[in-house]
Known about the structure:
CATH architecture of the largest domain: 4-Layer Sandwich
Distance between the termini: 23 Å
Structural class: alpha/beta
Shape: globular
Radius of gyration: 23 Å
Strand content: 15-25%
CATH topology of the largest domain: Metallo-beta-lactamase, Chain A
CATH class of the largest domain: Alpha Beta
CATH superfamily of the largest domain: Ribonuclease Z/Hydroxyacylglutathione hydrolase-like
Largest sheet: 7 strands, mixed
Number of helices: 11
Amino acid sequence: MRPPTVTFLGGVREIGGNKILIRDGPDRVLFDFGPSFSPKIEQYYVDYLQPRSTSRAKDLLEFGLLPAIDGLYSPDALGEPERRTSEPGVDAVFVSHAHADHAGYLELLHPEIPVHVGRGTRILLEAIESATPMRYGDHPWRPFDDGATVKVGRIEVVPFPVDHSVPFAYGFLVRTSEGTVVYTGDFRHHGPRATQTHAFFQAAAEERPAALLIEGTRAGPDPRHNLTEEGVRREADRLIADRRELALACTYPRDVDRLTTLARAAHAADRELVVSTRTAHLLSAVAPLFPAGVVPVPGTPGGPQVYRRKKRRFFTWEKPFLDTALDAEAVRARGRDYLLALDLMHFPELIDLRPPNGGVFLHSMSEPFSEDDVDDRVMRNWLDHFGLSFHQLHASGHASGPELLELVDAVAPQELYPIHTEHPEAFRGTRSHLALPELGVEYPVGAGRPGRSAGQA
């Protein structure tokens, strides 16, 4: 029987694109399956030049942008819908969270491969599908419970919730016949669910793991401020409290924590948060999974208002919000009463909103990757045109470099594999053996000191 191995099919020296295959004998489990933020894809596909919708997997495989594994992809994704479906290439897929770089390629997978996700993640994915062009495909969906062991042949997977910038994010303990592999997914421990991250890493340390697969988004050079969510709130309070004009913000619609922070800051300043119909839809979908009153929900006491963009046609999912939605004229007339969360793609609304010169704009998202970031330059042009005052105000969804090194030493794995980072060498100096992973290489599990194996209590 072949020993267990870990193979990295993505996420190596790049941000995003995690695709991790763990084998134990005949059993094969894949963790995450999404595109990366690497510029490699832009060597072949950019702007309107994209993979064909009739053969996305085939077109990406042509240039090595997807792993070439027999039975991994659906006939539709290969452009062969009439072909008889082959045997699935893996036994199961586990998704750590709903960000596109971890889940965005699920639609391409073989339709018989079970996809395991958190119960909240499944609801969030459904809401995203209904309100965006994103599709995740038809699969046997297997929602799991926090901390409940899922068996796939001889492999045991234990999901632990962690703190991240999207709700329902998970790290995993993966028990094999030769020891435990810990896969962190994406995480932080400076947000409102920091205790969950701490509990996960405590459980990981107790496993005495053979390997730790840790995301390192912020390893290496990192000029970003290490704000906490509370820090974002304090700065938002300071910036909008005494202003007499419309305040604007830009944040991710899936960042429920940030939207909650902005709603509370607006309330403290005697304002109301105003969100897009898409954000309203996502908040309404996930709110029942939180304790009552935690997530601001449109249409409830103290909940945000909804902004009605000028458009020719509204989708079915938008219609529940339209009767009480505010248009540009209503927001402009009572600008002092609102904090409007506006997506970059909705900036043309500024032409009708006519925000006063010097108004506050809270950019509550990640900084651009470089000074040449196209979206950043376009955003600045709009802000300069309307004379808006830019303020960067973001708590990262990822742990800082020093925090990452502390966690590695606390877990003390036998082998350390940094992924989801452009700087894996930044992990040198920990007490664990650093292995710089390479694409497609099989790494054995448990060659050294023993840890807990599958089936052990």
